[in-house]
Amino acid sequence: MSLHKEISFETEICDTLAAQGWLYAEGDATQYDRARALFPADVITWVQDTQPKAWEALSKNHGASAEAVLLDRLRKSLDDRGTLDVLRHGVELLGLRQPLSLCQFKPALAMNAETVAKYQKNRLRVVRQVRYSLHNENAIDLVLFLNGLSIATVELKTDFTQSVEDAVDQYRFDRNPKPKGQGSAEPLLSFPKEALNKFLNL
User: Fold this and answer.
1) Which end of the chain is more exposed for a tag (fewer CB within 10 A), N or C?
2) DSSP-derived 3-state class of residue 87
3) What's the pLDDT tens digit per position in 159-194?
4) Is the whole-model pTM more than 0.85?
5) How crowded is residue 106: how many other Cβ atoms within 10 Å of its Cβ?
6) What is the per-residue pLDDT for 136?
7) Buried (b) or exposed (e) across 123-158, using 16+ Cβ within 10 A?
């Protein structure tokens, strides 16, 4: 896929998702936290909007460091338990009576208005050209986030110039979760700690 066509394809995907309610803005990639593999603004906004009392307690206990404490604890929980478990069961923090939830799954019934309202506050975001690496300036075409947690990465390809095997090899070698000669892994690519899916758009 030529660079021009790839950029156009990225734009079309992002515009389509935005029309469906996803958050999308040019320049969002600059807000991505490589070391934590999070979109911090959405993590904080989700907690503030859906669990204000918990956020108030965090702010009281940690002051100006509340955001960093939450993000660091979230990163450690992702490392220890994986993304899916964190989304299902939340994150425990000292001083809080119950775990912070990181998402609201769709309720089976719409009888509980509070649960429905919380579900509607989920923050879905698409970010393009995410420079994710701790070791180089490699970029992934698209990353999908739920409340600031990465849930999928997307590489755009075309079968006119590259095969499926070429796309798989790009993830295997150019998107290696543990680059050779480096002491640390790439947080965004280290399943199950991060993105749950890798998509190859052909």
Assistant:
1) C
2) helix
3) 566 666 766 666 676 776 666 666 677 888 876 666
4) yes
5) 10
6) 87
7) bbbbbbebebbeeeeeebbbbbbbbbbbbebbbbbe
**How many domains is the chain partitioned into structurally?**
1
What is the Cα–Cα distance from 72 to 74, expressed in whole angstroms? 5
Amino acid (one-letter) located at 165: E
The answer to whether residues 86 and 76 touch, using CB atoms and an 8 Å cutoff, is no
Domain of 100 in residue numbering reads as 3-201
Q: Give the number of residues written for the chain.
A: 202
Q: What is the DSSP string of 74-85?
A: HHHHHHHH-HHH
Using an 8 Å Cβ cutoff, are 53 and 61 in contact?
Answer: no
In the chain the beta strands, taken as DSSP E runs, fall at 124-131, 139-146, 149-156, 197-201
- pLDDT digit string, tens, across residues 68-113: 999 999 999 999 999 999 999 999 999 899 999 999 999 988 788 9
